[in-house]
Amino acid sequence: MLRTDIAGVISRADYTPPAFLIETVRLEFDLDPDCTTVTNRMRLVRNPAGNGGDLTLHGQELQLVSLAVDGQAWPGYRVGDEGLTIVAPPDSFELTLVSRCNPLGNTSLMGLYVSGGNFFTQCEAEGFRKITYFLDRPDVMSTYTVTLRADREAYPVLLANGNLVEEGGLPDGRHYAIWEDPFKKPAYLFALVAGRLVCVEDRIVAGDGREKLLQVWVQPQDLDKTRHAMDSLIHAIRWDETRFGRVLDLDRFMIVAVSDFNMGAMENKGLNIFNTKYVLADAATATDDDFGNIEAVVGHEYFHNWTGNRVTCRDWFQLSLKEGLTVFRDQEFSADMMGTESGRAVKRIDDVRVLRQAQFPEDAGPMAHPVRPESYLEINNFYTVTVYEKGAEVVRMYQTLLGREGFRRGMDLYFERHDGQAVTCDDFRAAMADANGTDLTQFGRWYSQAGTPRVSVSAAYDEPSHTYALTLTQSCPKVGVELQDTTLVKQPFHIPFALGLIDRAGNDIPLRLMGEPAGAPAPTTRVLDLTRASQTFMFTDVPHMPMPSLLRGFSAPVIVEHDYTIDELAFQMAHDSDPFNRWEAGQRLATRQLLALVESIQLGQLPSVDSFVLEAFRLVLRDDTLDPAFRAQALTLPAETYLGEQMTETDPAAIHAARQYLRQRLAAALHTEWLAAYHNHRVPGTYQPDAASAGQRALKNLALSYLMELPDATMVQTARTQYDSADNMTDRFAALAALVHRGGAAIEADEAHGAPHAAQALADFYTRFEREPLAIDKWFALQAMQRGDGSHCVIDAVRALMQHPAFTLKNPNRARSLIFSFCSGNPSQFHAADGSGYVFWVEQVLALDALNPQVAARLARSLDRWRKYTPSLRERMRGALQQVSAHKTLSKDVREIVDKALA
Ligand code: B3K
Ligand code: ZN
């Protein structure tokens, strides 16, 4: 069994229903930055499903002013650091609590805080307890009425969840607003905003025939950057109506942007609060990626209205119930918005890149946990790529297994059964199974077992009988917390394995399994149900030895092991009808080449590049029938962190050198083609962020980045001209990045040209965008991720930038742009042999922890994979982790991360 007795550890197995339910809440806020008073009147009833006992409410950093039960003083209570216990309360009563908190002093950005002089809240997961005493758990759902009172001049706008029912003036220049949310909700969905804000408005008639008011609230100077967010919201509303039959249930839906925010955005009922990064966009300050991310995040938060808010989680172990499902929904939304099949594939490739670069390492490291974790010390540490992105893959597998219509039937049943409830991942799986009359018991292991399964594939062709036998064997050793569980024996997963067979001419072969009648339709892609440890599938009528196209569309979050030859991969890259696998073949080819280069570099040998690889890439670059966005994906080499994961011992310096070497070789060998791509993919007319134009820019700017690898100094001028003349941030920033990366690189030939250009352009960029914090974040991030060489250490640049007047640790976006970009986005510099990166990491984790534990804990994770590195780096990393762990006053957040890493 797992140890659940460690101090402070919360275990899934220990769930008990709450002793009381809170039916209604009336909150009154007297907003004041240093001392806000909250009056909370709650109707409580004993929970028939509870186990009796006293009433213990959560509460943190609160000052209790008064307490009354049914309007009378109640002497039987205790207040502690974590909450308030009412001893022997009645079975049904009204509790009135008055308490105070300090929003201005709140640097954790959880609960009620001040940003840019305005008030904001963040309650998920457990921030409401910093606002008032409450049963701050998702299975307690209540109806809220909220009164806000504040100075009218300083806080002209007063917003909360639901509908505005009353507003008016008060003596002493104050005013008030009363908001009612008609839907029951858990406390984590509560929100208020107060301050000097303006909004763009739209009205739409929703699928229920009612008019809805939509608003995007921002600071006055940002009003002209809200159109894209509003359009994205309207698209999201329409998409959820069409694809899932889900209609916006409120008369009013608001999005508010705030620049101090711990994460991307938050789905508070009817009052979504967003990091400015995922709201504000115009051609001058946002890139194509920013526009895409805004659409995705606006969609994601909106989709939570049904998957998360109407149906919520019983406890935080079920987080993926809402997050995995909602990420899946936003991925599908973005894919549909791409408008073409090829666009969908590009989106899928992007999503899989993230999964492999971030989730696979998590699933192999000390924080590895199942999609539904078994225990945690701090729940904020479990908003992970496993819960989100792997969770989305798990939901996608239901759709792959049940088909789009079957999946929709399952979703409909899920809402029919559970609307207004707080439920579990098992309830979701049961709805999927019951709506389709199928058994998904084994599928449940995706929720309980951690780790990335490996599927090894072997094949045999029998010429006389024209049969092809494909054997799939799965394995998934214990990882992370599973290693401590001596009784655990891992069981095979239910893996939907999509595949095709390609003939010599590059065409798909119709797929017929042994025993199937000859007349039955034979599709060219089939999803095999791999449920046992090893299974053989026999295909008949296969005219000759085919080339297998495995795991088409990445139908399951697994690692496929198969001995492809180099020419097989080149063939697949040129011919596979599945665009995902065409891309995948190129990535495999590049990975194999890069790992060979790493080995040569480590052995001090002369590196050499296989001409096959160069020719395969040339074919893709020249193929004008392929979508430019797809070509850009296919010609982007695997990331350094991904390559590190493919090695027994990660050697960041050698990986960086190998990747750079291959980039230079590709640049030189395909020089003519890159130049043509650069010149032929300029987009005429005014900037539009649509998928087709963005794809052209992606290919053009990729070409620029390759061309800048060559010692041809004229390219420096080309980049500088693009930087100066660009009418949009995508092109301007790509040119700046090309200059900066060249400036930092050891290209002797034009050191004299590249470096000054980079410095001038960086200075120009700063002055141009001084008043645009999101652009300045890009400026910091680019410098943190610049290349280094022997004489040029990026850590020095980063330390210098920390002294820049525009730098502050208190703003999470700014901290991420400089510190995280360096520690996670510049592996070869962060892992410098002298350990200077780790010294910096220790300092920053500790400094951040004193301000904002959630952000600090994220940074702490950049040493997760320490055991995988070369021995000297490994020892230095262990030392750094021990140094942090030795601090007595660490937050639970950071404590959990470093102690798990060292365990
Ligand atoms: N549900 C929020 C995440 C809250 C994170 C708290 N540490 C945003 C989202 O996933 O939509
Ligand atoms: Zn979410």
Identify the notable features of this structure and list them briefly.
single chain; about 900 residues; alpha+beta; Immunoglobulin-like; Zincin-like fold; eight-stranded mixed sheet; five-stranded mixed sheet; 26 helices; binds (3S)-3,7-diaminoheptanoic acid; binds zinc ion; protease
Rg, please? 28 Å
Q: How do the strands line up in the largest sheet?
A: 6-5-9-3-2-12-15-14
CATH topology-level fold name of the domain at 20-312: Immunoglobulin-like
Number of E strands: 32
Q: Class of the domain at 20-312 in CATH? A: Mainly Beta
Characterize the main sheet.
8 strands, mixed
Distance between the termini: 17 Å
Helix content: 40-55%
Structure ligands: (3S)-3,7-diaminoheptanoic acid, zinc ion
Classify the secondary structure makeup into a structural class. alpha+beta
Q: What is the mean pLDDT?
A: 96
User: What proportion of the residues form beta strands (DSSP E)?
Assistant: 15-25%
Poorly predicted runs: none
The CATH level-2 architecture of the domain at 20-312 is identified as: Sandwich
Number of helices: 26
Describe the protein's architecture and organization.
Keywords: Aminopeptidase, Hydrolase, Metal-binding, Metalloprotease, Protease, Zinc. Belongs to the peptidase M1 family. This is Aminopeptidase N. The chain is an alpha+beta fold and 903 residues long. Among the domains are: 293 residues, Immunoglobulin-like, CATH 2.60.40.1730; 100 residues, Sandwich (Immunoglobulin-like); 134 residues, Zincin-like fold, CATH 1.25.50.10. Helices cover 41% and strands 21% of the residues. It has an eight-stranded mixed beta sheet, with no helix packed on it. It has a five-stranded mixed beta sheet with strand order 17-18-19-21-20, with helices on one face. It has a five-stranded mixed beta sheet with strand order 28-30-26-25-32, with no helix packed on it. Helix 5 crosses helix 6, helix 9 packs across helix 13 and helix 15 runs parallel beside helix 17. The longest helix has 34 residues. It is globular and about 90 Å long. The two termini are 17 Å apart. The structure holds (3S)-3,7-diaminoheptanoic acid and zinc ion. (3S)-3,7-diaminoheptanoic acid binds next to strand 20 and helix 2.
